[in-house]
What does this fold into?
Amino acid sequence: MRENISSQLQLGEVEVADIQFNPRS
It folds into this structure.
């Protein structure tokens, strides 16, 4: 699923999306 996001969103957007989907806090 993350691959589709990276394809649609930009690198900066992907980082934010990655953090939202996989919170490390």
The chain has two helices and no strands. Residues 2 and 21 are 9 Å apart (CA to CA). The longest helix spans residues 11-21.
